[in-house]
Structures are given as C-alpha cells and as structure tokens.
Amino acid sequence: MLNLMPTTVDVLKNRITRWNWSGDQAKLERISANIVQHNNLERWILGSEAGVQQHVRERVALQHDLDNPTASTAKQEISARMRRLGFL
Length: 88
Description:
This protein is mainly α and 88 residues long. The chain is built from four helices and no strands. The radius of gyration is 15 Å and the shape is globular.
C-alpha cells in the first residue's frame, strides 16, 4: 500500500513506508485504505471491476451499520462489526 499524503506534516511528505500485514489485520487495512481513498477521490476509481464492486458492497454495509446502530452494536469495535458483517 502506498500512501501519498501531500497535506501532511513535513517530516512525512517524502516518506515511503511498507507495512506487512496478514489475515484480519490486512483486511482491516484494505477496507480502511479504500474508504480513505474513496472519500478523497474526485473523478477516478482505480482497480479491477471485481475489486471496486467489493469495495462498494463493503462501504455500503459498513455505512449502514454506522448509520443505524443498535444498543448491542453501538459500542462494538470496528473489527467486531466487520466480523459480524462477514468481512473477517
């Protein structure tokens, strides 16, 4: 994953970092990175058709879950919500 952060603090502007995640942590990172990218897109979405469709399904399900909390789900951590939604 490559993060380009033009509006970050000076010390991070020219830094390239590699994270080596696996399992559930890798899935959490993928979904959160896709959401950040989606929130910052202006015109283009890059990726395979299947990958973009998966992102849209996950984003809709997570947003619905956040917009309609129940007493039992409101205090759940994101990993617990994702596990309950079948993403992990």
